[in-house]
Amino acid sequence: MAFESNNFNVAKKENLAKSEFNVECNISAGSSVAKILSVSLEGCVENYETLNGVINYSGYIDSKIIFLNDEGEINTVCSSCPLSSKFEDEIISNGQTANISLNIIDYNIDSLNGDTIKLTAIVEQSGFIIESRQTDSIKSDDEDICCKNDEISIIKFIGCASSKSEVKTEINSRNKIVKILLTESKAFVKSVEAGVNFVTISGEVVNRVLYLNEDEKFESGYVYETFKEEIELEGTTRDSLVEAEALVRPDQVTSEIVEDDRGVKIVVSSNINFKACAYNEEKVEVVQDLYSTKCDINVITQSFSMTNVCKMDTIEGKIEGNMALEDDKPRVDKILFSAGNNAIITNKYVKDGEIFVEGIAKTFVVYLNDETNSINSVQLEVPFSISDKFDGNEAGKIFAAAVIYDSDVAVKRGRELFYDAKIKACINYCSDIICGVISEATCLDEYQEKDYAMEVIFAKQGDQLWDIAKKAKIKESQITEQNPDIVFPLNEDTTLILFYQKVS
Predict the structure, then answer these.
(1) Which element (helix H / strand E) includes 477?
(2) Which CATH class is domain 449-499?
(3) How far apart are CA 81 and CA 363, in angstroms?
(4) Which of 106, 270, 350, 425 would be 185's cystine partner, CB 3.0–4.6 Å?
(5) Is residue 380 within 8 Å of 419, Cβ to Cβ?
(6) Domain extents for the chain?
(7) What pLDDT, in 10s, does the model give residues 461-472?
(8) Distant-in-sequence, close-in-space partners of 433: CB < 8 Å, separation ≥ 6
(9) Which residues, listed in sequence order, are joined to residue 197 by a DSSP beta bridge?
């Protein structure tokens, strides 16, 4: 057999098409709802299945709603609403690894009926798939086939692994705590490193707790706790390319008031899901060019694309903005609290050596109006854009997650709200590399037998040994053995003499 397969696999990451769908949620508040003050919604994926042409997945929407009941009390209801959806695309194949992101871009309160809140969440689904894509290549040990081999670098997908961990943080208070209204918990990955058969993910959990003290004042505080999670992932080395994410399960965040001799504190427990994916850069030998000394060959060259993963990066920045109340809204005489902090990323790109992450920061501001003696709320939306120097291709793929912290809202002249916060984003970046390889070759008609014993070749300055041999349909060794004083590439026009053994 003249040719054998020499196939290899390369890593390929493909974006899933972004789309929107609606999820209807019926939430029991436990007491009669007079007014909604803030809504915090977060989408989570629990399970998925990749089949040929489709990814089916299920999850839930976690809701934390602060409301005013008929007795004028401020309460909170936390609930989970199930959801399911799918991606359809011909690039999806059975068993592929998927990473699915859910973004709650908006919602509608459909009705308030007693203690039941009916809302419709508008969910944006996006993500990517990772596959180990086979590339066809050939090799030959046939003595009549001359091959020019080359070593190329390829990126191979090793796999993904996940784990779970609990992180506890504490917030101390000078005053007695009457009630916890809201706990917002986010995880942020700062770095990811590969070891021998394991990956280490480092970062921090950002918690914000809103509570009511014994003086009937609303207080909130941020607290941060670092984490370092080691995940077993067979096949990784210290030189592996790795990427990771850490997601807090919002339905599994608990807050507990603890009193002891030293005072009062809130203990927050956050359950985090970790996921790491690894890639290796390897060398493979492929046939760059070939010919036969006996027959014509039909050669098919195939181009292939693979994804190169870059080292994870982080960028930080500030968000500032003003918003004037609409005319039908009562003026702000006193801000009670803000809740439902969230950052929605709308755009990310690389331009002129910088990476940009853009989006909208959202929060609810709950306030008092003295004239009507009423508690009111308004949703504040502030656009943001953060950037940093970045060495990357503008055509690359960017996957980003952002966390807001140290947020604050102030009022100016009763009708203008000023928002101030910090934001940091975790960046996973990759780019596609396109290469070519001979994927198939077929032997055709045999050459006619040479009917002469000698041949003269007039070679030009700069000609390479391989090109001369390929044109003459002989082995390189015959040229060098019969023209031992010639050096390639030729430094001048040269006459080469070739001798053939003629068999009677």
Answers:
(1) helix 476-482
(2) alpha beta
(3) 22
(4) 270
(5) yes
(6) 7-132, 136-293, 317-427, 449-499
(7) 999 999 999 999
(8) 155, 305, 306, 307, 308
(9) none
Long-range contacts of 342-347 (CB under 8 A, 24+ apart): 342/40, 342/42, 342/404, 343/384, 343/402, 343/403, 343/404, 343/423, 344/103, 344/105, 345/103, 345/400, 345/401, 345/402, 345/425
293 token code pair: 């000394």
Which of these, 178, 186, 205, 167, lies nearest to 403 by C-alpha position? 186
Rg (CA), the chain: 33
Q: Which of 165, 162, 226 is nearest to 199 (CA)?
A: 162
pLDDT of 175 > 90? The answer is: no
- Phi, psi torsion values for 477, nearest 5 degrees: -60, -30
In 261-371, DSSP assigns E strands to 263-292, 295-309, 313-324, 334-351, 354-369
pTM of the model: 0.89
Average pLDDT over residues 127-150: 94
370-374, long-range: CB < 8 A, 24+ apart? 370/333, 370/334, 371/330, 371/331, 371/333, 372/330, 374/330
pLDDT band at 502 (very low <50, low <70, confident <90, very high): low
Question: CA 407, CA 332: separation in Å to the nearest integer?
Answer: 19
Torsion of CA 466, 467, 469, 475, to 10 degrees: 30
- What 8-state DSSP symbol labels residue 250? G
Model confidence over 281-291: pLDDT tens digits? 999 999 999 99
Please say if the pLDDT value at position 1 is more than 60: no
Question: With left for phi above 0 and alpha for psi between -120 and 50, is residue 141 left, alpha or beta?
Answer: alpha
As given in the structure block, the two tokens for residue 429 are: 């970046």
For 38-60, b/e burial (b = at least 16 CB within 10 A) is bbbbbbbbeebebeeeebebebb
Mean pLDDT over all residues of the chain?
A: 93
Alpha-carbon distance of 127 to 400, in angstroms, equals: 11
Beta bridge partners of 264: 173, 259
